[in-house]
Amino acid sequence: MKSPSRGVCRRVMIAGSVLLAATAGAQDTTRGATQAAAPSRVIGKVTDTSGVRLSKAEIGILNSELRVVTDDSGEFSLSGIPSGVVVFSVRRLGYEAATFTAVLKPGKAHRVTFPLTELAANLPGMTVAEKHQPSGWLADFEKHRAGGRGMFITRPDIERRQARTASDVMRMVPGVQIVATRLGPQLVMTRGAGARRCLPQLYVHTTPYSGMIDDFSADDIEAIEVYAGISELPADLNTMGKPICAAVVIWTREPPKKEKKG
Q: How do beta strands 84-91 and 184-189 pair?
């Protein structure tokens, strides 16, 4: 576990602090009680281990509903945080999830940097032979769709929905509920009246994924497969030897090609 404890807390000078210290004792006591209850604020950024800033990283607080996502500059601001020892959970697609512990002072603003380590096994790339022509892993998506089992959501479906997150996309699927949890939205599936509630197994391409559905924004997704039961699941999806009641397969979009520097 990594900790940004060194250099996390940066004192913010409060105008009028000298005058307040010279007021009557009863007023000092009142101010002390108010300050102790004052929430803290964290301003920071998420980077990779080389210092490159990461957008769309999610920062949450353990045992709290507070959460925020970094902007295009990899920066974030989170207010209303209880003072004292706070554990931050930081996640981003393609990087190892990490937790960081910090001691926050009441009524203060703190500046932090959360570095994430890139996953050793990257998701496979895709080579497009022709625009709009499926190839690479999208050929597997088309093969699954041709099997006639399950529900299939394509990029045009997502755009018509004007979805912002993956859970927004899943709201169009019959029998799917989005349940708020401490870690974020959780998919719950049912198959008819009186059916047992099921937490579907997530896949990224054909690999089981242990994260949450909103680790992906709608802009990250090219297509989704939804299987309401194990009998519908294509044979090439690895279940890792464990029983599953349903599955959701996420196919990410083609990454932009990087220009080679001469």
A: unpaired
Q: Is 232 helix (H, G, I), strand (E, B) or coil?
A: helix
pLDDT value of position 6: 40
**Nearest partner of 68 among 15, 114, 27, 33, judged by Cα:** 114
> Which CATH number goes with the domain that contains 108?
2.60.40.1120
Angle at 142 between CA 137 and CA 147, to 5 degrees: 130
What tokens appear for 253 in the block? 């979009």
- Rounded distance between C-alpha atoms, residue 260 and residue 222, angstroms: 25
Cβ contact 182:65 at 8 Å = yes
- Cβ proximity of 223 and 251 under 8 Å: yes
Number of domains in the chain: 2
101 and 34: one domain?
A: yes
Domain that holds residue 149: 137-252
Mean pLDDT by 10 residues, the chain (262 residues): 40 30 38 62 91 90 87 91 88 85 87 86 43 60 85 89 86 84 83 68 84 86 87 77 83 60 48
- What CATH number corresponds to the domain at position 230? 2.170.130.10
With 0.70 as the threshold, say if the pTM is over it. Answer: no
Task: Give the H or E element holding residue 178.
Answer: strand 176-181
The sign of the torsion formed by the CA atoms of 165, 166, 167, 168 equals positive
